[in-house]
Design goal:
166 residues; binds ligand DLZ; alpha/beta; Rossmann fold; two-stranded antiparallel ribbon; four-stranded parallel sheet; globular
Length: 166
């Protein structure tokens, strides 16, 4: 879906549950850190705005987007996070490498998301050039980190509501 006419930072604030007490993990890729660092800042700021404590946000870095899969897998295994946000940025180059990394990373994260109780939030930006990425990490299309934070809070709330129906 095109994000061209959409602002990634725009959301209905009244639709976001209170996030006090939620523990959120963030795995962030070092590749294109000028972009992923800005996504991380957006995600953290938005989590805190909705009540998540600084101490309840666990940030770990991995070398590249492809390593997000393993990073998230380890967080699922070794932490008590209620949701995990995976942040990366893959920019198209001259070879088919872009397609393999995007597809592999997306598939790996989707598999983790579908096979664990803890939601995995997809914060991978895949763009044709650096400008498109900058536009989505605090530029003219907002910040995908904000969107990921709101999604994480909503998915933790979703999970909690279902658990309480048992
Ligand atoms: C190798 C590579 C390339 C060419 N481009 C990117 C990129 O744009 N964004 C990104 O996050 N990672 C890139 N990588 C690194 C791979 O994700 C991975 O770290 C290496 O292939 C080692 O597994």
């Amino acid at each position: 879906m095109a994000t061209k006419n959409q602002n990634l930072s725009a959301y209905d604030i009244t639709s976001v549950p209170d996030a006090q007490g939620m523990k959120i993990g963030i795995v962030v890729s070092e590749w294109n850190y000028n972009v992923t660092g800005a996504l991380l800042t957006g995600a953290k700021d938005t989590l805190k705005k909705h009540g998540v404590q600084e101490n309840d946000i666990l940030v770990m870095t991995v070398p590249g987007s492809f390593e997000l899969i393993h990073g998230v897998q380890e967080m699922l295994q070794f932490t008590a996070c209620n949701a995990i946000i995976a942040i990366g940025c893959v920019i198209r180059g001259d070879t088919p490498h872009f397609d393999y990394i995007c597809e592999g990373t997306t598939y790996g994260l989707a598999r983790l998301n579908a096979t664990h109780d803890i939601p995995v939030i997809y914060g991978l930006i895949t763009t044709n050039d650096m400008q498109q990425a900058l536009d989505r990490c605090g530029g003219k299309h907002g910040n995908k980190g904000d969107e990921c934070a709101v999604t994480a809070i909503k998915m933790v709330d979703f999970h909690r509501k279902l658990i309480h129906r048992r």
